Amino acid sequence: MNMQQIPEAAVPPRVDPHTLMDDPHTKLRRLREDHAIVSFADNHVLALRAEDVFAAPTDPRTKQIDGIDYVRLNKIPAGYVARLFEDIFLFGNDETHRAKRGLFARAFSFQNIRRRQTGIRAVAEDIVAGLPRGEPFDFVEAMAARLPAEMIADFLGLPRLDSRYFASLVYDVAMAITPIYPTAMHDTIEAAARELFTYIADALTSRLKAPQDDLLSAIMVDWHEDPVIPFDSLVHQVIAVIIGGTDTTRAGFAMLVSLLLQHPEQWEAVQQDHSLIPGAVSEALRYDPPVGTITRLVTAPLEIGGFRLQKGTILKVSVLSALRDPAAYAQPDEFDIHRTDHPRLHPIFGNGPHRCIGEVLAKLEMQEALAALVSAAPDIRLIDVPTMIGFGGIRQITRMTTKID
């Protein structure tokens, strides 16, 4: 559409974001059928359709919202949480983003992660071997949370025994990455951010005094020789890596197993043919993803769905909606591990300069964990089906009760 034909006063229909928290798939589907875009507030909109959602991360008229704006828009009080989100590379752009992300680029390279495949499988098999038999247990706590936390501990060089401790702090801090900041939980989030900062700062400082053969030591030695960012900022970037490497994989893997167990024929197919596992992982991440929205800032006027968005508009793109869009996927509301219409690059990991740095690690963890589970516990049963809560940011998953006979 020619932008000159769009009325200046045209605004998308207004939606209360709180109404999307429950049963978001149904509500987003109904909105998407009639609207390409809806608004939450003045200059704050949500794009719903795949063509717009998938294009936004690389559209030169938008950029990643920066941390200062994120904190301001969410009215996060001054303190550890605010300083963390103002600084982490997840909410950065251009050279600042490249410098901070670059601290970890070599460690997260495809070749380096692939070298860890055997170790990932060994950790997964050890966890599966230790799962309770003959009694109900929470799968999220007993396996889905343990694997990414223990792997990121190994990856960075933190004690594996500390993984449960720092992961619990991460889960609290990750509550801040949501379209509706949980103000009532701020004290909990703030306390967790403060404790996590102290834990990582101490780990880095100890490696400057006594370097070890691990990633944190390598990062600290490089930083000491060329301190491109302040020490507090270095701590923040390590925390960002831990957040990205634990909470989303925890929810994603639990939902993967839940969906397969709800479709016994597909669970059995994966047992019989492990070559189906990568497709199963991709399909679970599409069907009920652990990340619901990505937030962009409009930097030059653009048009979506017949509406002109002015510079300065906060543009949330609903990955949750787009991954169920029939314009992008055949029969999108069906869970099908045999699906052949996945794009080459899975949209859940973003695109452009901000594509998830830990994508290869997350996929490999989920694939190896599923292979270990179907091999050693094929008779696991689902008792309580978990729910992924929320429509945006990092979504939370409820308890998932299972039993291995």
From TrEMBL:
Print the keywords alphabetically: Heme, Iron, Metal-binding, Monooxygenase, Oxidoreductase
- Residues given in the record as heme binding sites: 356
Q: Which InterPro entries match?
A: Cyt_P450 (IPR001128), Cyt_P450_CS (IPR017972), Cyt_P450_E_grp-I (IPR002401), Cyt_P450_sf (IPR036396)
The record's GO molecular-function terms, alphabetically, read: heme binding; iron ion binding; monooxygenase activity; oxidoreductase activity, acting on paired donors, with incorporation or reduction of molecular oxygen
* Signal sequence range: none
Q: Which cofactor does it need?
A: heme
Disordered as annotated region, ranges = 1-20
What is stated as this protein's family in its record?
Belongs to the cytochrome P450 family.
Q: Provide the protein name.
A: Cytochrome P450
Q: Which organism is it from?
A: Jiella endophytica
